[in-house]
Amino acid sequence: MAITLKRQLDSGEKETILQRYGRNCYANGHVIPDGEAIHFDHIKAFSAGGVTELNNIAPMCQKHNLEKGTLPLEDFRIKLEMNQFFEKGDRLTLKDLLQHLKEAGKIPSFGEEVALIESGNSVKIENHSFSKTFELQQCPLGHLEKPCLTAEKVVK
Fold it and tell me: How many CB atoms are located within 10 Å of the residue 65 CB?
């Protein structure tokens, strides 16, 4: 069984990465204070086939790099967001999550009233910030009398 060793970055490569990203933690963008250790993390984990090349390495604070382990970066970022959300309490609801996502700029809105306007074989769904028309389709099971709405066929 062959053992593959992770190649270590040299000081010039580390400087190139810092010039590219600054002293910002790649996990969530916070500044890594002077004097705090900078870890150089594989964006795609080495254990998952990520290579030790400049386009796959980014600076990360020690805390986040150790927490991330071998998680893919996007999964770790979602974990950080979920941790931040659950810090708000233990009796949270879907409404709380949607409000959190709205405040974080992840979704534009939620819980707003919409108008449904039927016209022949289509229905228009709209509110103050959204308007789309969908073609109505006959239910493929054939036992429903009313047509069913399918989002695959958008009428523009």
Answer: 21
CA dist 65 and 121 (Å) reads 54
Does residue 67 carry a pLDDT above 90? yes
Beta strands 148-155 and 115-119 are unpaired
- Length of the chain as a residue count: 156
CA distance 117 to 99: 28
3-state DSSP assignment of residue 49: coil
Tell me the domain boundaries of the chain.
8-70, 72-108, 115-155
Which residues are CB-contacts of 92 (< 8 A; sequence separation ≥ 6)? 85, 86
Q: How confident is the model at residue 142 (pLDDT cuts 50, 70, 90)?
A: low
Helices (H), 23-154: 62-68, 73-86, 94-103
pLDDT tens-digit map of 90-110: 899 999 999 998 998 888 888
Which fold, 8-70? Answer: DNA Binding (I), subunit A (1.10.30)
Q: Where do we find the tokens 């963008």? A: 29
